[in-house]
């Protein structure tokens, strides 16, 4: 591994900057060095400066998917979600089956309040990496956002099978179950979310609501 990137991965940012700058000086026409320096700047939240380095990399190699991805990440972190979505799309046109890029494109559209555009990206990201519980969870949220509650319930169930400590997946599973009046199942899901994260306020409210629903059912029996 490049010494500068090794420093970056270890969180030694000053040492990384020194090594990566030397790489640029020694090989000024190598786009990889500009991408690496851009990643460093993005890591330390210098997003505008990072984008300048990614742009330089793209001047040297217009098909550098990693440069488009890095610029997309910088825009995403800066909450420029429309720009991020465009950049991730550009990265995908060069590397269409990259799960991370698909996930980030989907998240950019979600933050842009465009769940319909996000859906195919999050679906494909979860298909390419079946062990990625977060990609699958976000796909479930996207389905729920689009009112596909039954499909979302199935997805959240799958997330809880992959990650038994995913409190938000249990909470959202409970919400879907409550939607279909599965009050006992929903109560169990909310309780599971609370067992993982006792301060889960929404799950706490969900539990109270389900307990009240069940009391009402018993009173009518």
Question: Would you mind describing this structure in some detail?
Answer:
The protein is mainly α and 221 residues long. It has a domain at 1-62: Alpha Horseshoe (Serine Threonine Protein Phosphatase 5, Tetratricopeptide repeat). Helices cover 80% and strands 0% of the residues. It has 13 helices and no strands. The protein has helices spanning 3-9, 13-26, 31-43, 47-60, 65-77, 81-94, 99-111, 115-128, 133-145, 149-162, 167-179, 183-196, 201-220. Helix 1 packs antiparallel against helix 2 (13-26). The longest helix has 20 residues, at 201-220. It is elongated, with a radius of gyration of 22 Å. The N and C termini lie far apart (69 Å).
Helix content: over 70%
Q: Write out the CATH superfamily name of the domain at 1-62.
A: Tetratricopeptide repeat domain
Secondary-structure element sequence?
HHHHHHHHHHHHH
User: What's the total number of strands?
Assistant: 0
Question: Low-confidence stretches at least 5 residues in length (pLDDT < 50)?
Answer: none
CATH third-level topology of the domain at 1-62: Serine Threonine Protein Phosphatase 5, Tetratricopeptide repeat
Instruction: Please report the number of helical segments.
Output: 13
Instruction: Please report the distance between the alpha carbons of the first and last residues.
Output: 69 Å
Please, what is the average pLDDT?
95
From the alpha-carbon coordinates, what is the Rg to the nearest angstrom? Answer: 22 Å
CATH class of the domain at 1-62: Mainly Alpha
**Alpha-beta content class:** mainly alpha
Described by the principal axes of the CA atoms, the overall outline is: elongated
């Amino acid at each position: 591994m490049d010494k500068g990137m090794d420093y970056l991965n270890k969180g030694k940012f000053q040492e990384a900057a020194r090594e990566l700058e030397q790489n640029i000086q020694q090989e000024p026409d190598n786009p990889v060095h500009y991408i690496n320096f851009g990643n460093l700047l993005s890591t330390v939240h210098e997003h505008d400066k990072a984008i300048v380095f990614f742009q330089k990399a793209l001047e040297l190699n217009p098909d550098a998917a990693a440069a488009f991805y890095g610029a997309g990440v910088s825009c995403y972190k800066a909450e420029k979600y429309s720009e991020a979505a465009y950049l991730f799309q550009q990265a995908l046109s060069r590397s269409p089956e990259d799960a991370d890029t698909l996930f980030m494109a989907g998240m950019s559209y979600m933050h842009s309040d465009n769940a319909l555009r996000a859906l195919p990206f999050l679906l494909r990201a979860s298909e390419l990496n079946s062990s990625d519980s977060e990609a699958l969870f976000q796909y479930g949220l996207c389905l729920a956002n689009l009112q596909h509650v039954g499909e979302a319930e199935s997805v959240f169930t799958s997330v809880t099978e992959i990650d038994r400590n995913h409190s938000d997946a249990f909470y959202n599973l409970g919400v879907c179950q409550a939607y279909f009046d599965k009050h006992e199942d929903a109560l169990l899901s909310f309780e599971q979310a609370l067992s993982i994260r006792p301060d889960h306020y929404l799950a706490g409210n969900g539990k109270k609501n389900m307990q009240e629903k069940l009391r009402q059912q018993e009173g009518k029996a």
